[in-house]
Amino acid sequence: MQGVLLGGQYALLACGLSLIFGVMRIVNLAHGVLAVLAAYLTLVLVQQGLPLWLATVVVVPLFAALGYAVQRGLFNPALAQVGRDPADGPRGAGELAPLLVSFGVAVALTNLLQEVFSADTRTIPTGGLASAGLPVGSLSVGVLPLLTLAVAASVIATVQLLLARTSTGRAMRAVADDAGAAAMTGVDPRHMYAVATALAFATLGLAGVFVGMSTQFSPGYGELVLLFAFEAVIIGGLGSLWGTLAGGMVLGLAQTIGAQTDPQSGVLAGHLVFLAVLVVRPGGLMPRSVQE
Amino acid sequence: MSDAGAARAATRTITRGGRGSLAGGGVLLVVVVLLAAVVPYVVTLGALSSLVMLFALVILGTTWNLLAGYGGMVSVGQQAYVGVGGYALIQLADAVGAPLWLAVPAAGLVGAAIALPTSYLVFRLAGGYFAIGTWVVAEVFRLVTMRIDGLGGGTGLSLSAFRGTDRVERVAFVYWFALALMVAVVLGTYLLMRSRVGLGLTAIRDDRVAASSLGVAVDRGRRLVYVAGSGGAALAGALVALSTLGVTPGSIYSVSWTAAMIFIVVVGGIGTIEGPLVGAVLYWALQQALAPLGTWYLVVLGAVAVAVVLLAPRGLWGLVAGRYQLFPTGYRVRGVPPGAAVAPRADG
């Protein structure tokens, strides 16, 4: 039960990773540390006396704006190097460019956070929300994990609806399929990419707040966040947001069961389940079934 | 073809290297001789130890470049093999009792041997997902190592093979040994890239499908690069363990090794043999100069790497490589007027 609920948090984290990859084929290695940045921002705002819900309302749009800026300033120039014909001019990192840029951001940001906030672990004070429980039969279910799962499910549903039903979503899917053709119909791919990243960063900011409330985090924690989100995506199957939710739950279950046999092997059990899925079902549990 | 065209064709020469490369190679040879014969007698023991770290960084950069620059695979998990190399060295030297000059290359072989089965797993992922997949594998290596009591659990191991050896003698041995290994790895990479295999690898990097249709064994080539690159990382890990006299799982399996490799290759110039040399010297110098400021140097390094990828994608070496090549791997057609023909450049 606990494991399934933990999956909600991983799915929420994985949502943005999946979205950026789906639209732009960029794997954002700074994903985890950005979530931790959101947690630190929220913590600072709460310490300034803002109520938690208001801090969240501030951080999420701030992250959306950050996402737009990062895409226009860093990822778009990096993408411009992808697919450049070697005969056209100096060939550099080529298609590795976005990956390398995001790794540079991750290294710089992690150590910046470490210098500013030190390596001590922190947690966002929730006023008892993190420890509150709901009795279900003989079990007690945490209110915060339940809330996280509900938020994850509604974020995924919203993103799906946005992609499927709105004109922006249509344009985004068009750009993802063929940026050149989309540009001919009057869609600006660079703007569309930035909107997609803004959306992804908004979900990431929200995820960061929930991570900050439920766990002890430090600047280095971003590394684990990235790995967990990534494992949820692969276990669930690439390109399927609901699959990611399922993948997050599988990962959460594996970690919880692993931790019950030995408190130190929870993370290892999660990694091993991920590798097992890679061997047995490389396409994930729900491959591309509900992409559109 | 017109007469003029024929005349032009007749004046073309296909060259590899040239006077510049010979001169540059001579300079490098002088540098190596200086490092081997003069430097150990004029600097302190502490400086020698830190030079050993520079040699290890050159090996790390060169082998990561083999993966990313020539194989097109960005691995963020090479610290897995740095760790394996470190642990293998200590086990081979202390538990098995192998002489150190044999244990270090053997540790490299252990890394390569472990990389072979691992490659079947991580090759199921492509591009960016390959990057994070290798990272997960490295974490698994670290967590499993920490659970094995014979490997010291969470506290690590220390090397006892040097017990009773004079400190000067020990540092001098490690220094010369590391220098020799670095020269061997760089030369070996150069010879590999000059060979038929290297030409195939370059083709795979530029266009995998086209290379495959021309009969290049794509999977075999990538696997070879992964195994060789991982063996090199293990070699560097063994040198680090030899120089620091021990390993702890937290530091020898740290992702900062891979961060260093990426910085060295990207800033020096990806896809060239000279680039990692330049990058390693720069990384090492920055680390030495900014170390008193804590981790700020990593903030600077991350920002510099981003700037180089975006503004000077061929790296520092790329800014001069148009004119010079110390390690000429590709052939070049000379005597072609600019824009008259497409000269295929295999060097990139």
Automatic annotation (TrEMBL), chain B:
This is Branched-chain amino acid transport system permease protein. It is a multi-pass membrane protein. It comes from the Bacteria. It is found in: Cell membrane. It comes from Promicromonospora iranensis. It holds the Pfam family BPD_transp_2. Keywords: Cell membrane, Membrane, Transmembrane, Transmembrane helix. InterPro entries: ABC_transp_permease (IPR001851), LivM-like (IPR043428). The chain crosses the membrane at residues 21-42, 48-68, 121-141, 173-193, 224-247, 259-284, 296-317. PANTHER family: ABC TRANSPORTER ATP-BINDING PROTEIN (PTHR30482:SF17), HIGH-AFFINITY BRANCHED-CHAIN AMINO ACID TRANSPORT SYSTEM PERMEASE (PTHR30482).
